[in-house]
Amino acid sequence: MGMTLLTKILAGGLALIAAAPAFGSGRTFTPPEGCTAFLTVQSRGCRVSHHYRCDKDPAGDKWRVDFDQEGIFFSSHIDREAQWVESYEMFPTVRQALDPNPADPASFTELLSGADSYDFGLTRSTGERSRVTGYDRLTGRSFTIDGIVLQETEFEFTETSIGGTVLRQAQGNEYIHPEWRLFFAGPTRWSDGTGGSLPVDGSPVDFVFPGEPGFLATEPIFDCDAILSQAPEDGLIVKVRHDR
After folding, report:
1. 95, 172, 173, 239: which could form a disulfide with 125 (CB 3.0–4.6 Å)?
2. Could you tell me if residue 174 is inside a domain?
3. How many CB atoms lie within 10 A of CB 203?
């Protein structure tokens, strides 16, 4: 699902969360033991993300951890099909995990053929459950960002409570890298289901690889002054990502 919806094997995730207070402005991120980082992405919207793989995970699984100006705020774990396996929101720490036997699993492979729909359930560590439905579709357009060729998608999704109340909706565009099997955020309109909506653009700006300056840096560098000028409630929506 194209998730700037809105963030490890459980032990790895908890280890990262426990270490979170150690990360600060000007510091670097260290993946959990047994894990190797392969990409840092500086994005619009004052976010920097680090992507890594862990030896004990199934082949194709990946992790992402997000930092803003205040530090770590989100971590996510996806599988080879970019299904949302689990995520962690920080402060307070809440884990959200994919329910077994989704009605229509997200499939990156199907998306590469043109389009993919999805329908699956999520359960939070607080006991709350929700249902997510939507689609991703290739637009046929490609963009080169910092020398990396990405394919554009369009998406829509809705997250509802088990009782049917709309919790979150979004529509817009994202980017994918077919070989990396990763989504990256793009221009999106978000709604919390109350009728209003907010435009958000978390598009990637810089891709940083191992050995390059800025790899694993935890300080975001783009649009941070603009984010600080937003109302607090806007900032909360900015942090809800859908690029998995």
Report:
1. 95
2. yes
3. 23
As a whole number, mean pLDDT of residues 205-221 equals 97
Pair 229, 46: CB distance under 8 Å: no
pLDDT(194) > 90 = no
Is 5 inside any structural domain?
A: no
pLDDT at 231: 40
Rounded distance between C-alpha atoms, residue 168 and residue 192, angstroms: 4
Alpha helices per DSSP H over 91-181:
108-112
130-154 per-position pLDDT tens digit: 999 999 999 999 999 999 999 999 9
Task: Read off the tokens for 176.
Answer: 């994918």
What separation in angstroms does the CA of 167 have from each of 12, 62, 156, 174? 29, 27, 14, 21
What is the average pLDDT score of the chain? Answer: 86
* pLDDT for the residue numbered 10: 34
- Three-class secondary structure of residue 131 per DSSP: strand
Lowest-confidence pick of 89-103, 104-118, 127-141, 215-229: 215-229
pLDDT of residue 124: 96
Helical residues (DSSP H) of the chain, grouped into ranges:
10-19, 108-112, 224-228, 232-238
Q: The domain containing residue 101 runs over which residues?
A: 10-238
Number of structural domains found in the chain: 1
Residue with tokens 């280890």: 15
Residues 6+ apart with CB under 8 A from 160: 130, 131, 133, 166, 167
d(CA 163, CA 114): 32
Assess if residue 177 is contained within a domain: yes
* DSSP-based helix, strand, coil % in the chain, nearest 5: 10, 50, 40
Classify residue 2: in a domain, yes or no: no
